[in-house]
Predict the structure.
Amino acid sequence: MLHLWRRYRRNRGAVLGLVVLAAIVLAALFGPMIYTVDPFDMIGRPAQAPSARFPLGTDVTGRDMLAGLLHGARVSLLIGVAASVCATVIGVAVGAAAGYWGKTVDAVLMRLTDFFLTIPSFVLAVVIIAIFRPSLVSVMSAIAIVSWPPVARLARAEFMAHRDREYVQACRAMGMSDWRIAVRQILPNALPPVIVVSSLLVATAILTESGLSFLGLADPNVVSWGYMIGVGRTLLRTAWWMSAIPGIAILVTVLCINLVGEGLSDALNPKLQER
């Protein structure tokens, strides 16, 4: 881990992204505990500009924007991380099976992957949420379902690259089962590039959730950054801060996640480890 951090910190942009992202996570975790205003309480005049009482102003119904931003950070990050983890698990499982066993298994699983890739991901997510009642679970599930195919293709390529190497052949000669070889031997060696892609999926998931919330296809009982943008779009000309503030939060968060993913890619790249 120490060597990994040394390689990671060579990328100053990645370190900066990690610091800012850590601050956002801390604000999401502890901000609502410090700033205890309920984001659904109508405590001010509608569309009030930022002031001493309301540091970020109020929305169309007089709700505190700062409270919404802090609570929305929790929801947006939760959806992004949870959807990314689910998509990674599904993608690794499909890609590992296709790459290790090959032949018929590979053909069937890759055709299934190609089917999901041919459908626009955002449209498919909208359809899935429209079928079920909009909620946190349905949003996370929809994003995970549309996000796993790229992970599956990457995992398949990694498993195909490792399945015939000497250490795998040695494991087969020792009588080790295919399951143990795939999970205990190949998977740890195939994980580094998957981890990088998984970290970038968090940013994609946050953007997708924001788009769904903007269209009103999110849980109406929770506040997210996309929900705040959707609420403020009707007064974009006269109360621009209502959409600009959560929009900037999404921009900064996604940018930081991309910088962290770039740093992880450099740190885990074996070609750069000796530099």
